[in-house]
Structures are given as C-alpha cells and as structure tokens.
Amino acid sequence: MLQTLHEQFDVSTWVVGWTIAIIDAGIEFSAILASPLREKFGAKAVVTVSGALVGGSLIASSFASSLYQIGILLTLFCGPAIGVSTVVTKDVIGRSFSEFYTLAFGIGGIGGSLAFFTTVPLTQFFLDVYGWRGTMLLLGAILSHLAVCGALMKEPAAIKNKDEYQTVTVDEEQRDISDREPASNSRCRSCLNSVSTFISKNFGTSLLSSTSFWVMVFMLNIWMMMYTAWFIYFVPYAIVSKGFSQTDASVFLVCFGSGRFLGHATLSALVKQFHVIGNKGWLGIGLLMMSVYYALDPWLISYWPTCVGTFIFGYSFAIPVIQIDVVIIEIFGANQLGLVLGWNGLIAGVSRILSLYFPGLIYDTLGSYTLAFTLMGSVHSLTVVALLALVWLQRRRPSIP
Q1: Cα–Cα nearest to 91, from 283, 320, 301, 339
Q2: Which of 7, 25, 304, 357 could form a disulfide with 349 if both were Cys (CB 3.0 to 4.6 A apart)?
Q3: Longest CA span, the chain
C-alpha cells in the first residue's frame, strides 16, 4: 500500500516508508513484554486480546484523516499486538516439543506463506474497488481472526526447569550478620533482591552477558532489517525503477510467497535427509542465498527472470525463518526462546527507526531504488560473517553460550 498512501496523502516516499518502519518497530519493541505477559496471563488470553487489538486498530485507521494518525494508531496498538502474539506463539511451539523443531516451526510458518497467495492479491483487489479506507476496514475485519485463534489455543504441559526457585541454604555466619543489620536496611535489601530476582526471571537479563547472544542479535537484526526494507519498498521499486505495473508487482509477491510456502513445506525433509549439514549449516545456506539475490536483483529487469528471482528469494527466506528459532533453542534452550526474541526485538526496534527510511530517501534524492537495493545485498552479507563467528564461539566454548 506504500504507493497508494504516498499518492493519497501527497507526502515523500521516505516519509511513508519511515512510517511503516516505525509501525514495524512497534512490533519489535513490544517483544520484550511477551514472556512476562505470557507468564502472568497465559498464552491464550494474550493472543486473544492481541487479535482484538490488531483488528480494532486497522478498522480505526480506516477513519484516519492523515498518515500520521494511521502511524500512531498502528504503532501503539497493532504493532505491539502482533509483536507480543508472534513471540508468545513461537514460545508455545518451542515448549510443546522436545524434538522435530524444524517440522513444527515449518508447519507454523505455512500460514505466513499462504498470505502471499491470498492477502496480497486480495489487498490489490480491495484497493481497486474500495480505495484505501475500505481496504483498511476489510483487512481489519479479516485479521481479527487472530482473536479466535487465541481462544482456541492450549497451553503446553508445565515442565520444571533449572530456572525455578530453589531453597538456598544460609550459613550461620551470614544469618548472624543479617540479624545484626538494622530492620530498615534489611527491608531495603530484601526489596532490592526481590526486584532483581523478578527482573532476572521474567526478562532474562543474564543473556546480556553472553557473547553468543550479542552475535545472534546482530545477525537477526541485519537479516530482518534488510528483509523489511525489501518488503516495504519492493512494489514501488518494481514499478518505478523496473517499469512494471502494480499488478505485475503483486504477481512477484505471489511468486515470493510460492517459494516461501515450498520452503516451509520441504525444509524439514531436507534437514532430515541431509542431517550432516546441521541446523547452523542450513541457516548459512539460506542467508547466503538471500545475499546473492539482493546482489543480482537490480539486474533482473524483465518479467520472467524477476518471477524466478522472487520465487528463489522466497524459498531462501523460509530457511532462516525456521532455522533461526531452531538454532536459538540449540544454543540457549527452548525456555529461553521467548526471552532471546524479546531482547532482540527491543534492539531491532531502535535499529529500524534509525535506518529503514534510508532506501526511500535515496529514491527521493536520486530518483532510483537500484543503489539502495545494491547496498542491501552488501549489508546482508554480514549475516553470514556473524553466523561463522557464532559457530566459532560454540566450538570454542560449547558449554558456555
């Protein structure tokens, strides 16, 4: 909808792109709250409320009179609801299985792939027939299905883990010192300890001292930031720089969805068949294929090569979508998946606000997206470097994440 909103509100391309990036940052910022909310209210309640917020905010946006009103509504309500529900559902999948993670996450991601067969052409149809307001209204009604999905969710069986509270033995000397302390100091110390324990347990602050965690966050940020930039700007890029129609651009997105669907459907079997490569190896293959696509895409200027290119890009994108969660579980454990994704989201939100206006600014300045997409390929190649560093860290200190 970027091109439509750009023409409707008569604002610069980079402003529309940045507004979408800020909404996306709202998704990421909220991820840090997902694990505490799940612990407090349960996955079922959190996803149900999130679905109501997603649908309601999109419906309310259909009555907005400016791009800024749309940005505020979707950033404050739709973004956090998507961010929290995404992490919570992944966390539930991670806790529900002890093996076959690749298959579980692959099946879980099929819906996102099918959306490119349905939502993309449907959105184009709504824009042609009902305009952007009708499109927002109808999409809000459709995406309210998330509330129904939440109501149907079932919590995984509770599993005791090493993070649960345990009785700590206090020796006599420490008890004597504690008895001699003034009551006010003792209460303050107890209060601080309680706050520290609460933060550590619910937000996983111990992760911040892990080198592997920071390498993982760097890799995740670059990967998703480049993909989000592609997703925001690809349609205007195909229309303006490559000369395709908006209908053609929608077909390219369907090709992307087809490749992504095939990736989700077949990756589990491939990982099982070629298990020698390992989960990190498959992740590296996917990241490398995406980097190659970004580098070659500016040269794909005719219809069928672009269709094939976006199909391959969709397939290669499906590999990290599945394998990143599996690799996080391998390194940090299933119980830490939600916490790792939460902290990553907080950092990713800042990164996207500071950077995702840039492709639109390049277009507004130079009149072409080609340079922006070429730079994206160069930056994305850093994910492969980060993965190699992560493998080296694990081999050097396998018992310390």
Answers
A1: 339
A2: 25
A3: 81
Q: What DSSP string runs through 272-329?
A: HHTTTSHHHHHHHHHHHHHHHHHHHGGG--SHHHHHHHHHHHHHHHHHHHHHHHHHHH
Which pLDDT does position 259 carry in this prediction?
92
Q: Tell me how far apart the alpha carbons of residues 299 and 315 are, in angstroms, rounded to a whole number.
A: 20
Contact yes or no for 106/264 (Cβ under 8 A): yes
Taken in order 72, 73, 75, 76, the sign of the CA dihedral is: positive
- Please give the Cα distance from 279 to 323 (Å, whole number): 6
pLDDT value of residue 162 = 40
Nearest to 200 by CA among 339, 374, 16, 347: 339
Q: Residue 245 in 3-state DSSP?
A: coil
- Residue 64 has, within 13 A of its CA and on its CB side, a CA count of 22
With residue 100 as reference, give the H or E element that holds it. Answer: none
Of residues 41 and 364, more confidence is placed in: 41
Count Cβ neighbours within 10 Å for each residue of 251-287 and write b for 16 or more, e otherwise: bbbbbbbbbbbebbeebbeebeeeeeeebbbbbbbbb
Residue 76 gets which letter from DSSP? I
Task: Quickly count: other Cβ atoms within 10 Å of residue 152's Cβ.
Answer: 9
